[in-house]
User: Fold this.
Amino acid sequence: MVTTPVVQPHHLRRKAVIYLRQSTGHQVLTNTESQQLQRAMREHAHHLGWPDERIEVVETDLGRTAQSTERRDGYKALLAEVALGQVGIVLSYESTRLSRNCTDWYPLLDLCAYNQCLIADRDGVYDAATPNGRLLLGMKGIVSEIELHTLRGRLIAGVQQKARRGDLALTLPAGLLRQNDGVVVKDPDRAVQHAITLVFQTFLERRSASQVVRFFRDQGLRLPRRHRNCATVWRTPTVAAVMTILRNPAYAGAFAYGKTQTQMPPGGGRSQQRRLPSAQWKVIVHDRYPASVTWETFERIEAILAENYATYGQNKRRGIPRQGAAMLQGLVYCGRCGHTMAVQSKGGTQYLCNYLRSQAQAPVCQRLRADPVDQHVIEAFCDALAPAELDLYADAIEHRRQQQMEVDRAQHYTLQRLEHAAEQARRRYEEVDPAYRLVAAELECRWEAALQALQEAQAHYARLQQPPAAEARQAIPSALREAFRTLGQSLPTLWQQETVSRAQRKALLRCLIDTVVLDRRVPDTITTRIVWRGGAVSELEVPCSVGRLADVSDFAQLEAQILRLEAQGKSDEDIAQILTRKGFRSSHHAELLPSTVRLIRLQHGRLHRYWGPRPRRVSGSLTVSQIATAVGVKPHWLYHLMSRGRIGVQRDEETGLYLFPDRPETLEGFRQLRDGDVSELRY
Assistant:
């Protein structure tokens, strides 16, 4: 027993706690000598006077880092026991075992000082309640924290220096191989090279990673991926796999280091990796690897991906053109609050500004019908293209033909790969000793699986082959060729054809239009401001439907015109035609309806001539009600058959009634129609 003036009898009456910790699980498995040194602190506790029954070892934090107290249950339990006054001394091989963060180190010192608990390491015993002891322990805590950064700096300094030269051997993606001399070359497998190139070509055409996945799956193609053992495997394409290929600068021939940044969640937990923009990467060395695309193409792809990320509330991106009915999706902004307007399909396609409602529970700014706005903006777009003379269809067909050739080449490579795998499985089966039945049976199953995969691929390839007749139909007719040569003039007609999809129409609009600002200043008009690429601005007044006729802007003038024309003896139909030519409209239609004229006329008591009641009987004729009474049917049944065309009769111009000959044959014919003997009657 070693006596020291720091250790007092009241310390010995409490237990001694030995704290063990190693930073990673790998250290726990391999660095066993460090564990032995830490466990040897039990002998140190014996020498200080603690019996074996009052010595406790805390080893639940093995494999946990000391940068914080997260997931360090043993350290938290130790703090609780110190706070309760149950611990007389805390022993660790060195202060770095307890904490490498001063924020966690000083609360332990405060608890030990308040509850008269000692702290000991291999160098001595310290009392945190004394100035000298707190000074030494505080310096040890500072050195522990600084030592962590120093060690990390030493470890990564060489890595960063090597990365600046582009010589750091990072993990290469599928399609690139590192030779024994360190030189990076393309994978000699042409199927791998062609699949990577096809991913970039398809994305540049379709501008969406999900569309690339759909294209590959429709064509029955797979993607090469790097396995953990550095081998190349073929996997079913996914959006994550396509995004990994598109965003990897190695395919553009560039060595990049420091592309991500580690972030800790505000509420604690595991750290997260956030990808930085290419301008913030620490190291970029161009022309380091054999490139599949140029660096300019890679930057263009990055811009497209950023543009497709349509989080309106955060980055105000427009998003990729989709197949929805709203032609200005992602381009429309609210003229009142300035935020992007979303698309709502429920109850008809509408542009909705609900940003303030989602953020501050404020009322919706605007809710506008999309059809009239889209129609006027498309007309302005066609007018802007009127001087243009384009020949795009032939280029599109040629591009499609080239793409089909690339797809055929990829499928051909796939068939070659499967044929090689089947041949390799056959050779392995034939080379095995027949005495090893279990091995032979397994190799036979593998051979059969390879042959089945080859047969399925061949059948899929045969189904995808385009017949010659379909290729002939793709030839450009002379009339269509002439129409595309004057695309600006014929674009309104081509716009309505099924040849151009909705997504392609939206992409065409985005070629010239940057934003569209909508503001419904008056109930029946939407003020539309088109901002073109290049800064030019056009303003349109788009009429829209209103709920009440009184909300029409020129309602008072319309009312006066109707009353004036009615006083001149004009009919409702004539008044509607005259005022429609002057630009007046109804509440829900672009033209003025006779029913609207009649409504306004009747509201002012303007009644047309009253001709009196219709006659109940007409000499020499039978009315519908008379026939219904005589035959024993409902009049509505007769009117229904007239509307269906089974009773052919014209309305009498003088009386306005449906009249039938007053003869016995007429009633007999209706009785036969009632009984189903005849199907129709004509008069």
User: Anything to note?
Assistant: Residues 311-315, 387-393, 468-473 have pLDDT under 50 and may be disordered. Residues 253 and 291 are 4 Å apart (CA to CA). The longest strand covers residues 513-522.
